[in-house]
Amino acid sequence: MFLLSFLRVIKFSLQDLARNVWLSIITVVIIVLALLSVNILLMVKVLGSAAFNAVKEKVDVSLYLKSDAAEGQIMALKDKVSQLDSVREVAYISQQMAMDSFTAKHKDNPEILQALAELGNNPLSPSLVIKPKDIGNYDDLLVSLNKLDDQIIESRNFDDHKAMLDKINNITSKASEVGLIISAFFVLITILVVYNTVRVAIYTHKREIGIMKLVGASTWFIRAPYLISGIVYSLLGVALMIIILYPFLSFLQPYLAKFFYGFDINILAYYKHNFFMIFGLEFLAVTLVNFLASLVAVGKYSKV
Amino acid sequence: MTIKNIMIKLENISKIYSPDIKALYKVNLHIKPGEFVSIVGQSGTGKTTLVKLLIGEEKPSQGKIVVGGWDITDIGQAEIPVLRRQIGVVFQDFKLLHRKTLFENVCFALQVCGEPPSKINSIVPQVLKIVGLENKMNRYPLEVSGGEQQRAVIARALVHRPKILLADEPTGNLDSINAEEIIEILQKINKFGTTIVLVTHNRDVVNKLRKRVITIDNGQIVGDQAVGKYIL
Questions:
Q1: What is the CATH number of the domain that holds A91?
Q2: How many structural domains comprise chain B?
Q3: Measured between alpha carbons, how far is residue A299 from residues A180, A213, A226, B228 in Å?
């Protein structure tokens, strides 16, 4: 008997979706729009956070060394710096490497190249490029570097770096706070929109719910078709979202790659890598809101 | 009167919405199995409240209600469907599903209760025949007259083979010919042994029936005649 009732519930639910096809379409479209806003928000968050991380990744400190410093002394200093707790990586840039990099960077500027040629020798200093272990402990790194006592160190003025890093950290933290508030606001609006859409959809069945109750249908039998409809709406909504989102991301990615040139940012890869988590959670969340709205609305209209 | 001889028993029933609004007040009533009882009274006297109490839609503020030996005074939500399968209800506004045919509307009452298709296919045509709708069962409610819609509602109420049929103003939306036909069907069902409780303020219908008449005024029973007339 339970199986028979269960099959009937599914039949009634699908029959209802088909007989109220416009209402079903509108409900699914609203779910898709709600999911679209959530996904746009997610994309902005992912891109923002990836951009900030990429910028942080590029932050390093250069310790400029005297031009006549012997290779052995430089290597000894490099080892010493590498052993500092706050240091992740140290790269040695020799005079020649600095020169190569400089000429490559200014290859389109003949005036600079000519001025360099007129000097007759390499005016650039060798350096150690130091990457911090944690950008948040940047101050510790600077204190440690300032404490280094080695005659081959030519310059160690880090003030500009500190100001820039403070700015980046400040922007990151504010962006994170604002992002959290906007996300919460968007999610709340999305939940309310989906919740009310489902309630309106069930409101149109107010009469039917009352009749079911009057002819002796159990509460389970009245509620179940709407819960199944909720699952179907959520499935259709998420499936449509996937169908819309992937071509959009494929279209968007080349522009993003161009915009964030030099940074490893790939939103399409992010979505592919997190497919089940993103869309699984979206499905669960929409289904949950659907269930909640169904339970409240059906409960309200079945009080006869 | 023994319990076996009572189908509906109301003991000191009051339904008080607020100190100023007493829909029913200290009502005592006994209805025997197989009786045909008309409950009459003007609008707002508590007739519909009485129906709501009998189908578990409302709970009494005081008193005790027993239907078919079952004390439903404090009936739980889970038990209400069971009660409603034992009491057929017919309303003035029909309450049919417009997107289903008359046949489907009647089937629906059995489907929601989990009855197997074989039973549904055997009972539904029988009850539709009793109410004279065997040739119109595939029509939608809006394609038939008000009287025919009401007959479909009676058929739907009958499919559970209820012990009691409550008809709340079943002729309220019908012309006199259709009203007469509906009353004839109710009498026919009563002859099969079903207890009929007809709530109405249609004077002609009550006077022609020549059955028991209970008169309610201001939430209280003011008259109970074995072969009565509409006296208000």
A1: 3.30.70.3040
A2: 1
A3: 34, 11, 11, 42
Q: Is residue A162 part of a domain?
A: no
Domain of A270 in residue numbering reads as 2-56+168-301
pLDDT in tens, B127-144: 999 899 999 999 999 999
The whole domain housing B117 covers 95-161
Sequence letter at residue A145: L
The ipTM estimated for the assembled molecules is 0.80
For residues A263 and A284, membership in a common domain is answered with: yes
- For residue B111, give the nearest of A8, A208, A304 by CB distance: A8
- Residue B32 within any structural domain of the chain: no
Q: CA torsion, points A129, A133, A139, A145, in degrees to nearest 10?
A: -40
Please count the residues of chain A.
304
- What one-character-per-residue DSSP string does B106-140 give? HHHHHHTTT--HHHHHHHHHHHHHHTT-TTTTTS-
Q: Do B114 and A1 touch (CB under 8 A)?
A: yes
pLDDT tens sequence across B58-111: 999 999 999 988 999 989 888 998 898 889 999 888 889 888 899 999 998 888
Closest-CA distance, B126 to chain A, in angstroms, reads 18
Residue in chain B nearest A304 by alpha carbon:
B57
At residue B230, what are phi and psi to the nearest 5 degrees?
A: -75, 115
Contact residues, chain B, for A213 at CB < 8 Å = 80-81, 84
pLDDT at B154: 92
How many CA atoms within 13 Å lie on the side-chain side of A168? 20
- How many domains are there within chain A? 2
Residue type, A197: T
Compare A256 and B152 and report the one with higher pLDDT: B152
What is the distance in angstroms between the Cα of B108 and the nearest Cα belonging to chain A? Answer: 8
Identify residues of B whose CB sits under 8 angstroms from chain A CBs.
55, 57, 77-78, 80-82, 84-85, 89, 95-97, 99, 108-109, 111-114, 116, 156, 160
Over residues A72-87, mean pLDDT: 87
Is B63 contained in some domain? no
Question: In terms of domains, do A51 and A77 share one?
Answer: no
Whether residue B114 and residue A4 make contact (CB cut-off 8 A), yes or no, is yes
B65 in a structural domain: no
A199 lies in some domain: yes
Look at B112 and A219 and tell me if their CB atoms are within 8 Å.
no
Is there a single domain that holds both residue A87 and residue A122?
Answer: yes
Beta-bridged to residue B29, according to DSSP, are B10
- Residues belonging to chain B: 232
DSSP B24-35: EEEEEEEE-TT-
Residue B102 lies in a domain: yes
Over residues A6-30, the mean pLDDT reads 86
